[in-house]
Records
---
Amino acid sequence: MPTRTSPLPRWLRHPLTGALLLLVLTAGALLVILRPLPSVKPLMTIETIGASVEGRPLLCHFFGEGTRTVFVMASIHGSEGAGTPIAERLMRWLTEHPQPWAGCRVMVMPVANPDGLAMEQRFNARGVDLNRNFPADNRQEKERYGPAPLSEPESQALAALIQRTMPDLIIAIHQPLACVDYDGPPPAEAWANRMAKACGLKVEKLGARPGSLGAWFGETLHRPIITLELLPGPAVDPAALWNRYGPGVVDLIVNPSPVD
């Protein structure tokens, strides 16, 4: 019978060649395994910006990064808790839909007054209305407004966060006046009109309350802030709250244009 010859060259059929090839392949595999993976920034980070009078953490959630910053906060009045599930649903939406808001940094603080929310009362644990405790030009000296501007740890933490990040827009969720209010320069009014339309509410210029966040950020610092006043009622159905008000909040995050 004729002798069958291998199609491989003689040098490849040498035993030492096979051993060397195995060594090279093994070394290459080890290099792939040991090579550091590229770092991937998390979609969301949580920062403890302070603590309440009773020691509850004040948590702010940071989503993404970009040249535009939107800050959404709720429950600075503890008796107005329906805004908290809306903020929590917003965080879920941001996680599940990262593309529409790409290029924007979104900050979400579901509970700005954790002691008041736990006690179901408007004020913090020291009986101070946090939304009258900011260093606005129109601040008034009243006992329930605190002994001095930023006398409370909660308002101190909020003011420090805002001054550090200087948002392009703040959306503060309140109850129970069922309207959209605004303070600050354009396009605050146009944004308020858009949100009101999306939420089925009216725009009502309530006027900056003395020492409020709206007065300080909108009038003193001259930056736009929208106050979303929900209908009265407890937060018994988070899904219904999100369906009613969520589209208006999302719209102002993903579309910075002052017009529709």
---
Amino acid sequence: MHLAAIYRHPVKSLGSEPLKAVTLDAGAALPGDRAYAVAHGQSAYDPEEPRWERCANFVRIANVPALARPAVSYDPESRVLTLADGGARATYDLGSPTGRADLAAWVAAVAGDVRPGPHAIAEVPGVSMTDAPEQAPSLMSLASLRDLSARVGAALDPRRFRGNLWIDGDDLEPWAELGWSGRTLRVGAARLKVGEPIVRCLATAANPDTGGRSDNPLPALKAIRDDPLFGMIAPVAAGGRVAVGDAVTLT
């Protein structure tokens, strides 16, 4: 097996950014992944006492599928987010109040009245705003994605699942990863302790090419198992650099 792709999502539910390599830290999420989220007017997120909050407190692709469409890139040092959507391109300095307000306004315009405002950029330093409080990368299998695509009758883009580490290989059987809980996976210089499967929601129906909903994979996932599972939480047991093409070994 090998590491086929790495993705991070600097802003929760907004675009996906492919990476060639990243250094993982023990006990932490993938660096820069879900570093920000966009709180809506009914959110419990408190900027005076920032802490991880449940996903319902933020604008999400499950409710606003158009957020999946933009291509994004993020520079952690400058804190500048670049967003490209069709022919439009914009940059946002998320280290400044103006840049944060501008991005929140862009998301609010896309979200419309689906999630009423006021909207604001949420951040908890050192915490990834994932759907679960556990700080860990997610692990996905391209073999499982191919099998799921065949069941759906459409080639599903990996970006639908917003996973971090995608593995592949001739020796990787579809859905094998769902049986790896508790086992150790060596990826490049890092070691991951495979955790629990990820239960999926309507966010996976968002087509990242169109920004609309199509080819919903949830019925096919539920036909495989009672719960719509795809991918695994994979906490980092020992940090290190991982790069696309690195060998992946299950122990």
---
Amino acid sequence: MTRDDERGAASVEAAVVIPAVMLLLGLLMVGARLWYVTGTVEDAAWLAARSASLERTAPAAHNAAQRVGTEQLRSAGTECRELTVQAEVSGLHRRVGEPATVMVQVRCTVPLADLLVPGTPGSVEVSARGSSIVDQHRGRA
């Protein structure tokens, strides 16, 4: 084989390898975004539940969960196309001395279209639940 027989081989190799490497990098970016958002949504759910469990009334607990969940995601730089924070605060209605918990579910629709990876959906919903124990010896409304 002479050098003339190998003319253009590098161009063919580049035409095959470069798109494959770009696709791999894009998939890594999608995975990294989903991993990061999952962690921040879990943290937001737990912190929202904790803040709701410290309140004395159900309306105040709902407001605290909504505020803390939203602020936590915003401060972490998490972009949610849609965000819902739902609090289950019936434990605040139990009598003092009875065990009770507060549950919060956070749902975040994460955009993926900006990563320009073929085959990925435009967005994915990530959700997490957090719970916190209500102090048994604390006054409740």
---
Amino acid sequence: MPIKQYNPTTPGTRGMTTQDFSEITTKKPLRSLLAPKNRGNGRNNQGRITVRHQGGGAKKFYRLVNFKLAPGTTAVIEHIEYDPNRSARIARIKDQAGKYHYILAAQGMKQGQTIVSGEEASIDDGNRLPLKNIPVGSTIHAIELKVNGGAQLVRSAGNSAQLMGIDNGYAQVRLPSGEVRLINENCTASLGVIGNVQHQNVKIGKAGRNRHKGKRPSVRGVVMNAVDHPHGGGDGGRHGVGGGKNHGAAPKTPWGQKTLGYKTRRRKSTTKFIVRSRHESKRR
């Protein structure tokens, strides 16, 4: 899918690109699969800002995507739709009982295509099977971490994982980060690569476009005063992270916690399922 470029008629459009929406077949979502989305603008129940740089943005409804398509489901793709809440496209499908669902659209999905979920499903892109029934080496996405828990891994545009092998009731899956992880072989996954592959190559072009997305301006810590950020301060010249007396110190968050390499992972109990860390693949 190509990237659409604009003629430089204004300073904002000079470097702007956007996605090609030619694969989208309808602009009208199914109302029964919509839910209101209340924006908190980065604030908690006390009104305090807990996530910075959020606010404003275009109003949008949440699409109720089915990440746990029941085994034995046979459905036909009726439309490929745009979802403002995620980078991937979604497909509107109608199952054998006449019920509608939204699922993540894999690359190459088209109207009229049949999607099957279950152990007996064929090895075709878009079909959903348990990992034990998928051939080793296949490209997969929307992977469950727990049996019947719904897809949690590999759900963004252009991403895919690879099934490396199956042994002792567990499947070895290489994730987009390079991490190789053990997952129960009864967990399900969808075949193929998620669509909208060129999403990461889109250039925003102007600040107003980010405001439409609900992103407020961000200020670098090194240009702040020392009282406002650990990176702030200095003698007025150009300087790196940790101005003034802390020049050259490790990068920190506005609240003093180390960042950029400092490990913050808390769920140590699942470390035993990691065969190869994503950090090992980057060092090679």
